[in-house]
Amino acid sequence: MTDDQLLRYSRHILLEEVGIEGQQRILNSHALVIGAGGLGSPVALYLGSAGIGQITVVDHDRVDVTNLQRQVAHTQERVGCLKTESIKQAIEELNPEVRVHAVSQRADAALLDQLVDGADVVLDCSDNFVTRHLVNRACVSHGKPLVSGAAIRFDGQVAVYDTRQAQDPCYACVFPPDEDFQETLCATLGVFAPLVGIIGTVQAAEALKLISGAGQALHGRLLMLDGRNMEFSELRLPRNATCPVCANRRADLAQ
User: Is pLDDT of 235 > 60?
Assistant: First the structure.
């Protein structure tokens, strides 16, 4: 670690739970962020400010004026730009040491299979169940920890799905892919602007804890926020022994 890095990250290094070794792990790590919108903005900015060595951001969309109410990594001047390029610029302005890879494509199964394999932690900041299940399947396949977040109206949730832990569920254990979940989009129902900042920041914190080894991550726990009353609640998440996504993978690992 250079003298400049020791100064930049001194407030992390002062934390007994992080220290120089934990900060070095952060500097050496690679985070994959799926989605560069309301959740992806605070996730990317806090990971970048904390010194994540590499950040890959995946999103196929462009910045729209309706995004600016909550997607804080984007600006009026970058309306019409690809969101990945906009968020890349925002991270680099904040911390030029971070290597940012902008992938301006839709996150399909083939792309995720390629990108997840090279990541240390994956953060799902997407806004639909199809993508979430694709991300989860890739994380299970490659044995990577997944930090999943969601936010709509005044309600948000965060969980860590890490099938390297024997008792941890995967996303599909909790939200089975064959169930008919109703998609709720903020374009039709709305979303409270600070809510995505709160949930995205918690996602970034969980990713940094996983990488640095600090604290206890949200393994097997769903943290839910009622933003109307600013009340947090927690739900324990058991794994499904017959899960169609992770059960066979766990069996293979056990052999």
Answer: yes
- Select the CATH number that applies to the domain covering 3-254 from these four: 3.10.105.10, 3.40.50.720, 3.30.700.20, 3.20.20.70: 3.40.50.720
What average pLDDT does the segment 115-143 reach? 96
Where do the domains of the chain lie?
Answer: 3-254
- Kindly write down the DSSP assignment for every residue of the chain, as one continuous string: --HHHHHHTHHHHTSTTTHHHHHHHHHT-EEEEE--STTHHHHHHHHHHHT-SEEEEE---B--GGGGGT-TT--GGGTTSBHHHHHHHHHHHH-TTSEEEEE-S---HHHHHHHHHT-SEEEE--SSHHHHHHHHHHHHHHT--EEEEEEEBTEEEEEEE-TTSTT---HHHHS-TTS-PPP--HHHH-B-HHHHHHHHHHHHHHHHHHHH--S---BTEEEEEETTTTEEEEEE----TT-TTTHHHHHHHH-
- Please identify every residue annotated as catalytic: 186
Question: pLDDT value at position 166?
Answer: 86
Q: Give the mean pLDDT of the chain.
A: 93
241-251 pLDDT, tens digit per residue, is 999 999 977 55
